[in-house]
Amino acid sequence: MRQKCSMIAFDLPGHGRSFPSELPPGSHTNTEDAYVGAIAAMVKALKLNKPIICGASMAGQVCLAVAIRADEVGAGGTIPLQG
User: Fold this and answer.
1) pLDDT by residue (tens digit) across 30-78?
2) How far apart are CA 46 and CA 56, in angstroms?
3) Contact 65/32 with Cβ under 8 angstroms?
4) Phi and psi based region of residue 33 (left: phi greater than 0; alpha: psi -120 to 50; beta: remaining)
5) What is the per-residue burial (b if ≥16 Cβ within 10 Å, else e) of 20-40?
6) What is the 3-class SS of the chain, one letter each residue?
């Protein structure tokens, strides 16, 4: 995939090793709007053109929400794994 596509990986806020800078670990907002908003902000900040959003486990579930809200996020599609 990396030979044909640009790939960017990031943790949703409060997962993995990333914590929102303004909040202490464990106090993140665990809502669909927060997760979809984080993905939309990343798409906008990186000026991505209709990226395919992929995710596994919790991020796979979020991909289902991104698919429904693709126009809002700016996504070209999703690949939800274990969603």
Assistant:
1) 788 988 998 999 999 999 999 999 988 888 889 999 999 999 999 999 9
2) 22
3) yes
4) alpha
5) eeeeeeeebeeeeeebbbbbb
6) CCCCCCCCCCCCCCCCCCCCCCCCCCCCCCCHHHHHHHHHHHHHHCCCCCCEEEEECHHHHHHHHHHHCHHHHCCCEEEEECC
